[in-house]
Amino acid sequence: MKRILIIVFGAALLLVSGAPPLIGGLIQAHQQHLLERLSLVVADSEPVIDSYQKGWFTSRTRHRLLLSDERFITVAQMLADPGESGPPAALIIDTVIAHGPWPVFEGWPALARMRSTLFFESADGEQIALPVVAVTRIGFGGGGHTRVTADELLKPMVNSQGVFSFGGADISIAFDRNAAKLKSNGVVGPVKVEGTNGLMESGRLTFSSDTRPTGFGFRSGSSQVAMESFVFVDYLGREVSGSGFGLALEVSADEATANYGAHLDLARIQAQGGAPVAIDLDLYLEALDGVMFGTLLQRAEQGFELRPFGTEIASLVRPGSGLRVSRLNLRAGDGHALLDLQLQVPEGEVRPITDGADLLSVIEGEGQLRINRLMLNSALGVKPGTPGYAGGPGDADPIGLISQGYLRVVGEELISDLRISGGLITVNKLPLPLSMAR
Looking at the DSSP assignment, which residues form a beta bridge with residue 198? Predict the structure, then answer.
């Protein structure tokens, strides 16, 4: 019995005295890996370790993330203190790691807990503390959870260009041991940038996502974002405002193809002097070429200009590829329009497609547009009292669309039935004066 107690006591002593530094070394390497993966997903850049101070129960690391993404540089410039120092050049992540088996930070037992504070650093070495704290828990399986909180902020921008205010944030990210599968959700408070060049203001924003990597360079899964309101005013005083914005995305991939679905809700968007417009859209892209889809997404993030009917779009499609607009509902005052559209490249052997015109020659599809006269006037820019205004039955025919049969009158609505086949496009069974047959 005494021997058993000695063995148990010795094992406990070894666990308490020997495990923490061993776990600390493992956690430091794991933290570096996690930071690299998360930084690539968020900022498309890899952090470099500046220093590592190894301790018995706690260790400390400092990482440097160079600011190369224009979005992060813009945010950094807004947060930077006015002064003579140069613009922020790097993000510094200073982390204290409490390693197991009993981390001293609060919470349930874990392999390690990390508390990180963030700084911007200018090219001349001046550091600007950020009101941001990240607390990470690493579980015994290697996965974990990070919670990022940011305080409210109100401060002048550099060079006295305006005032920046931020309503704080609370963001949670759960990850597996390789930081490959990510789940996130969060709330970002109102943001306002007001200066000599105009105003940008956004209301409370919420988001969530559940994604994983694919073999094509993009992440599959679902994500949602909602914003209460927004206002943009340019330097001439022209204003665009909106409210009730919501966007939900669903991306999936198999061995060769990618699928993309989007649902957009915008309760109101209004330009100064114009009528408020509401948008409701369901869009699906199906069986696209996975490699090209990934390439275009990466290039789009870098700000390239995508030609709508160029070779890039044509190379996306393959047999079975399709586009479905199951609903595009536009409302502007008493005007409304509804579009349903389905286009597909038939299954089977399809010759190589060289450009957009060639693509239209192999597409099969049909759709319907339902629009009332008030929305038609708005779409054509025709105002009351001018020639061509279609205010009701018997009024003038805007650019001859009704008399030529491209719009048919059904009660209070005007309807167009679209069909594409063999490179020929017809509207209400009337051929359009263009053909894509090859």
Answer: 195
C-alpha–C-alpha distance, residues 270 and 117, integer Å: 40
Q: Which tokens is 409 given?
A: 């009158």
**Nearest of 193, 202, 130 to residue 162 by alpha carbon:** 193
Distance CA 302, CA 296 (A): 10
The region, left, alpha or beta by phi > 0 then psi within -120 to 50, assigned to residue 232 is beta
pLDDT digits (tens, 9 = 90+) for 302-323: 655 555 445 666 678 888 889 8
The C-alpha atoms of residue 245 and residue 280 are separated, in whole angstroms, by 10
The DSSP string of 167-233 is --EEEEEEE-TTS-SEEEEEEE--EEEEETTEEEEE--EEEEEEEEE-TTSSEEEEEEEEEEEEEEE
Q: Are 418 and 368 in contact (CB under 8 A)?
A: yes
Structure token pair of residue 6: 């000695």
Going by C-alpha positions, the residue among 214, 202, 205 that lies closest to residue 186 is 205
Question: How does pLDDT run across 162-221, given as a tens digit for each residue?
Answer: 788 889 999 999 988 877 898 999 999 999 988 888 899 999 999 999 999 998 988 999
149 three-state secondary structure: strand
Coil, strand or helix at 34: helix
d(CA 422, CA 287): 21
Q: How far apart are CA 98 and CA 179, in angstroms?
A: 20
3-state secondary structure of 313: helix
Top mean-pLDDT range of 50-54, 98-102, 162-166: 162-166
Question: Which of 308, 309, 316 is CA-nearest to residue 292?
Answer: 316
pTM of the predicted model, to two decimals?
0.79
What 8-state DSSP symbol labels residue 400? G
Residues forming a β-bridge with 91: 65, 120
- Which helix (H) or strand (E) element contains residue 29? helix 2-43
Residue type, 190: P
Q: How many CA atoms lie within 13 A of 242 on its CB side?
A: 18
Q: What is the DSSP string of 362-399?
A: H-EEEEEEEEEHHHHHHHHTPPTTSTT---STTS--GG
**DSSP state for residue 274 in the 8-state scheme:** S
CA dist 118 and 380 (Å) reads 52
Whole-number pLDDT of residue 47: 60
